[in-house]
Amino acid sequence: MALSSEISGAPFDVAIVGGGIAGVAIAIGLLARGIPVKLYERAEGFQEIGAGIGMSPNSERAMLALEPRIHTAFRNIATPNTEDWFQYVDGFNHSDYGDGEELLFKVYLGRRGFEGCRRADFLDELAKMVPESCIEFKRNLVDVVEARGDGGRVVLQFDDGTTTEADVLLGCDGLRSRVRQLVLGRDNPASNPSYSHKFAFRGLIPMGKAREALGEDKSSTRYMHLGPEGHVLTFPVAMGAFLNVVAFITSPEEWPSKDRLTLPTSKEDAVHFFASFGPVVTAIMGMLGDKLDKWAIFDTFDNPVTTYVSEAGRVCLVGDAAHAAAPHHGVGAGAAIEDALALSVALEDAAGLLRESCSVAKKNEVLRAALSTYEGVRLERTRWLVETSRYIGELYEWQVPECGSDPAKCLGEVESRCHKIWDYDIEGMVRQTRELFNHKLRKSTN
User: Fold this and answer.
1) Which residues are within 8 A (CB) of 278 and not within 5 positions of it... i.e. 6 or more apart?
2) Which helix (H) or strand (E) element contains residue 366?
3) pLDDT, average across residues 257-277
4) Fewer CB atoms inside 10 A, N or C side of the chain?
5) Rounded CA gap, 222 and 200, in Å?
6) Residues 410, 403 contacting (CB under 8 angstroms)
7) Residue 180 phi, psi (nearest 5)
8) Which is more confident, 7 or 181?
9) Average pLDDT over every residue of 190-206
10) Which H or E element spans position 395?
11) Helices (H), 11-118
């Protein structure tokens, strides 16, 4: 079953594999620009892994540029912090003052900056913007055949034996991306993510319970509780109904499962791992649910993806499929939305050119230029995001020799790295995308 670009009058069509935030965001961006899409998701419905998610200022600017309704949807479900500072405290050493945690430093987030919501709630809001006719569930991709030369379309093969075609395939299928394996080759070390030797306990604590134990301040805004070989992030979600908890641990052992990134565990394990920490962290662990999962932190740091576009030029990787980062900066979803914006702009300009003149040879040239432009704009920044996310997770656990637990040195690194993320020039990225796309087309015709 082929996609129908003729029905919409568009000069090409796009297949998207993966129905997480990256896939749905790019679908919305392309549909808003008159480009037909079909999204294929292996599960029976949209589902997001994880509990809470935060959006930094650059992410919100990217939402506005991609499709303003995305930003409106996020704002409708984002839980306001009670103050605009991200506070970093010593969660390990027991202070004699206050609740036992010393404030080490804090970073200004901007007005209503870096607010959080539940991942599933955000994805639900995004999914409402994609027509049902553009989505197919229970579609598990197993192979891709990309025709070489002018006029070739991409053939997607699914595990039920069916196939479909599209002019462009976007791999938005996450950390363990099948499309990444097909683009890079199954034996390429970069085709699979690597274990960072950290895992996390994740949970939601009812706000009434959290507030009674931690007080108004600690339960109503973003806190990072630092310590040796472990750190804990807390922030309110679901309009203040819950306190989101992500408790990270460094482990020298290999992850025990080859197939599963989450494994069942218990509150007792979390309590045990953080038993030597201060009273606030131990209280947080004690309020988690009795049955928990622990989440392995895998990323593409050890073996970076060297190209986001296939050799034939019609398949590309987006979001975690291209640059899976550890969650310590909270940049994964925001980076995917930046990706979606760059791709949408490049493909919008490609569609504009092809509406004027759309020979088979020109379509191939223009679409290759569009995807190559996306890679040119996004590769350097996203690879740095992977690197700094690893680094900042080590910093929070006092594992960076140059900084140790020195608050001033840690603050310097946190501020400079966070602002490089948050202050990213989204409008400049859009301009760069358009300029590079035009440059690539001019170069190809000379």
Assistant:
1) 90, 91, 92, 93, 94, 95, 100, 101
2) helix 360-395
3) 94
4) C
5) 18
6) yes
7) -60, -45
8) 181
9) 95
10) helix 360-395
11) 21-32, 57-66, 68-77
Confirm whether pTM is higher than 0.70: yes
Q: Cβ contacts of residue 129 below 8 Å, gap of 6+?
A: 24, 28, 31, 67, 69, 70, 73
Measured CA distances, 275 to 2, 92, 149, 283, 359 (Å): 57, 10, 61, 10, 67
Q: Quote the DSSP letter at residue 285.
A: H
H-run or E-run covering 202: strand 194-206
Please enumerate in sequence order all residues whose Cβ is within 8 A of that of 99, keeping only pairs 6 or more positions apart, or say none: 214, 215, 218, 279, 280
Q: What does the alpha-carbon distance between residue 310 and residue 40 come to, in Å, rounded to a whole number? A: 19
Question: Which residues are CB-neighbours of 363 under 8 A, at least 6 positions away?
Answer: 11, 12, 151, 167, 354
Active site residues: 202
* CB 74 within 8 Å of CB 56: no
Check residues 116 and 5 and name the one with the higher pLDDT: 116
In terms of phi and psi (left: phi > 0; alpha: psi -120 to 50; beta: otherwise), the region of 336 is alpha
Query: What mean pLDDT is predicted for residues 164-172?
Result: 97
Query: What is the identity of the amino acid at 334?
Result: G
Number of Cβ within a 10 Å radius of residue 415: 13
The number of C-alpha atoms within 13 Å of 365 and in the hemisphere containing its C-beta is: 16
Could you tell me if 91 and 281 are in contact, meaning their C-beta atoms sit under 8 angstroms apart? yes
In this predicted structure, the answer to whether residue 4 has a pLDDT above a threshold of 60 is: no
